[in-house]
Amino acid sequence: MNRRRKTPAALEQFEQLRVAEQRRRQEARAIELERQAANAELHAAREALVEGLTREAEDPAAQQRFEEAQRKAAQPWPERIEASERRVKLATGDVARFVHENLDVIGAEMRANAEEAAANYRAALEAVLLRSGELAAVDGLWTSILSYHGSATAREMRPLGLEHLARDVKRALQNPVPVPMPRMMGGGAIEPDQAEVAA
């Protein structure tokens, strides 16, 4: 009995196609580097051979290296490079075609991620504001305790310097948090809860 193959989600398919494209680019780059290395090796082998012949010293090993370098450099590098570039274009075309045909599906899958990221950002700001308030409360309690001890409170307790941070966070919370979605897909923002900001 044939089992129906489960189709990956659109984002997974996009990532697979993009990885394949990146692999083709890496292959093309490797061929170009290989060509450069072959040319450099031929140049070095030729120089070594000419140097030996100049001294009228026969060097079979140098002759062998030169012949091997010639064989490497004589490969059809322009054709190999052109073929690799074509493979890159085909892979890029596969990604572009998939995005064009499945943008709505990708957008639907991305929306949840985008809204979650925006909500997490806002929650992080709220957490910073809350924790800075807790630090200030501990600082204030120490100030109160030391006032009964007769210590020089201003010298005993370092300034927390949280006023600017708290002010900036409050200002950020007063603004909508952008949801990273294209405008054509209804990208918007998570509006601030004015009651929470005031608190």
Largest sheet: 2 strands, antiparallel
Q: Residue-averaged pLDDT, rounded? A: 83
Terminal CA distance reads 63 Å
- How much of the sequence lies in strands comes to under 5%
Order of helices and strands: HHHHHEEH
The total beta strand count reads 2
Number of helices: 6
Query: Rg, please?
Result: 33 Å
Measured as a percent range, the helix fraction is over 70%
Spatial shape? elongated
Secondary-structure-based class equals mainly alpha
Low-confidence spans: 1-7, 194-199
Spatial strand sequence of the major β-sheet:
1-2
How would the blueprint of this fold be written?
Blueprint: H1 10-54, H2 60-73, H3 77-149, H4 153-156, H5 163-173, E1 177-178, E2 189-190, H6 194-198
Antiparallel strand pairs: 1-2
Helix pairs in contact: 1-2, 1-3, 3-5
Structure description:
Residues 1-7 and 194-199 have low confidence and may be disordered. The protein has helices spanning 10-54, 60-73, 77-149, 153-156, 163-173, 194-198, and strands at residues 177-178, 189-190. It is an all-alpha fold and 199 residues long. The radius of gyration is 33 Å and the shape is elongated. Strands 1-2 form a two-stranded antiparallel ribbon. The longest helix has 73 residues, at 77-149. α1 runs antiparallel to α2 (60-73), α1 crosses α3 and α3 crosses α5. The chain is 76% helix and 2% strand.
Offer a few descriptive terms.
disordered C terminus, 2% strand, two-stranded antiparallel sheet, mainly alpha, 6 helices, 199 residues
Summed up:
The chain is mainly alpha-helical.
